[in-house]
Write a structure and sequence with these properties.
The protein has 504 residues and is mainly α. The protein is built from 21 helices and 13 strands. One of its GO terms (biological process) is glutamyl-tRNA aminoacylation.
Length: 504
């Protein structure tokens, strides 16, 4: 096996990539980059019945959007290719035959009806049917049948599967980077199918063979594969190969903390569970994606990195480069990590502040093309610079900034009662005169001259500033009033104040 770190992300193209799969890919990527290694994408499509058109491209697009592209995989640096298991069919058949020849596997000819009978018979007796050492000599396989009978069935094309011959009365001693030492009694293991009657391998055989041939040094995968670790270790031993190191990541739990976060939970609970939007090719149903919902890739990556991993410090904000430097598998937790939809919004709000205002302006203008089509992109960018600290998504911008682009048509009733008193109209008329005579119309000059006037007249600041804000915005909200005045200009500022006087 190679001394250079080589890890793989090996999803099945059965639909959109779940956010848990993205985290698995991310942890593999971080580990590879931390050790100057290689991050490989392998498509595990041995179950052709579950294959979904477009799913493989979705996986690639999702990794690219998250800025964790694979180094090696389908169509990219294919020195260990092909990287789709469906294109490696002949390879697996040879290795399955090797296991039979070495006595570690056997042909099983049991029909689906026969196995169903045994299961129901066991259920009726309050037992669970397990195909292994305690009954395999009584079932229809190459252990119980004569060599001649087996050869005859094979020659006649009788359907069969190849099962691993799990040993009896042995103890397996396993090690996991995250879980530590694990001890398994082989008597409780079943004889898993390695090769199916359709001529395709199961995940177990294909996974082990591919990891060996692709020189994978570390297998970093979800907790759901922990029960398979015993079989996989036995397969490495049976082939006489050195096994990679294993690390099984904790589950991502529902926001309630109870149960694994599923693909259906997003629709039920109102948040995405996929990185990108997915349109089901059969039903045309649309599932929301983080990208389309307005999340930044940096937010998703930063959030996912802290789901089950702790850097050992209070730091929460990490760039991808910082994550690579800080990441250690030994600091990944065993316990499940609760998915918090509000926390990822918190990350998005943070990364919103770091975005380029002109790029945000382009996104904003595209969302509201009918309203902003004639507005200069530079002006929109300046507006965003003033209001984005209150925004979590680009979709929040219009609500926060509409008064920069058009005068308010209505005024908040509660704000009117609070801001407009009997003497307000007279104060606003006087204020208009002050504004008319501001020589250089800048936010700083406006602030200086208006505040000096208020102070000289011994007027309460609220008596002027509240109705002024209400006139400009239509509500008692928004950024600095003087910045708003500067942005909309002297003429528009005066028009809005006079409109408010007449309307209110």
């Amino acid at each position: 096996m190679s001394n250079t770190v080589r890890v793989r992300f090996a999803p099945s193209p059965t639909g959109p990539l779940h956010i848990g799969g993205v985290r698995t890919a991310l942890f593999n990527y971080l580990f590879a980059k931390k050790h100057n290694g290689t991050f490989i994408l392998r498509i595990e499509d041995t179950d052709q019945n579950r294959y979904v058109e477009g799913a493989e491209q979705y996986i690639v697009d999702a990794l690219n959007w998250c800025n964790i592209p694979f180094d090696e995989g389908p169509g990219k640096n294919e020195k260990f290719g092909p990287y789709r298991q469906s294109e490696r069919k002949d390879i697996y058949a040879d290795y399955a035959k090797q296991l039979i020849d070495s006595g570690h596997a056997y042909y099983a000819f049991d029909t689906a009806e026969e196995l169903d009978f045994h299961r129901k018979d066991h259920e009726a007796k309050g037992k669970t049917f397990i195909y292994n050492w305690h009954n395999r000599e009584k079932l229809t396989n190459s252990i119980s049948l004569s060599k001649e009978n087996v050869e005859k069935k094979l020659a006649n094309g009788v359907d069969y599967v190849i099962r691993f011959k799990s040993p009896k009365d042995e103890t397996l001693h396993l090690t996991d980077i995250i879980r530590g030492y694990i001890k398994i009694d082989t008597n409780i293991l079943d004889d898993k199918v390695l090769f199916k009657s359709d001529g395709m391998p199961t995940y177990h055989l294909a996974n082990i063979v591919d990891d060996h041939l692709m020189e994978i040094t570390h297998v970093i995968r979800g907790e759901e594969w922990l029960p398979s670790l015993a079989l996989h270790q036995q397969l490495y031993t049976a082939f006489g190969w050195n096994a990679p190191e294993f690390a099984h990541l904790p589950l991502i739990l529902k926001p309630t903390g109870k149960g694994k976060l599923s693909k259906r939970d997003g629709d039920k609970m109102g948040f995405p569970v996929f990185p990108l939007e997915w349109v089901d090719p059969q039903t045309k149903d649309v599932s929301k994606g983080y990208k389309e919902e307005g999340y930044f890739a940096e937010s998703v990556v930063n959030f996912l990195a802290l789901l089950g991993w702790n850097p050992g410090t209070e730091q929460e904000i990490f760039s991808l480069h910082e994550l690579v430097n800080a990441f250690e598998l030994e600091r990944v937790h065993k316990a499940g990590a609760r998915f918090d939809p509000e926390k990822i919004k918190w990350f998005n709000h943070h990364y919103m502040q770091e975005q380029n205002n002109t790029q945000l302006a382009e996104l904003f203008k595209a969302q509201h093309s009918s309203k902003l089509n004639s507005i200069d992109i530079g002006y929109i960018a300046l507006v965003i610079g003033l209001i984005k600290e209150r925004a979590t998504f680009v979709s929040d911008f219009w609500e926060l900034s509409h008064y920069f682009f058009k005068a308010p048509e209505t005024y908040d009733e509660k704000a009117v009662k609070k801001a407009f008193k009997d003497d307000t109209a007279a104060l606003m008329i006087a204020l208009v005169d002050i504004i008319q005579h501001v020589s250089e119309f800048t936010a700083m000059n406006l602030q200086t001259q208006i505040k000096n006037w208020i102070t000289s007249k011994e007027i309460g600041f609220g008596k002027v500033m509240m109705p002024l804000r209400l006139a400009l915005v239509g509500a008692l909200q928004g950024p600095d009033v003087f910045e708003i005045m500067f942005m909309i200009g002297k003429t528009e500022t005066i028009n809005r104040i006079e409109k408010a006087i007449n309307s209110i």
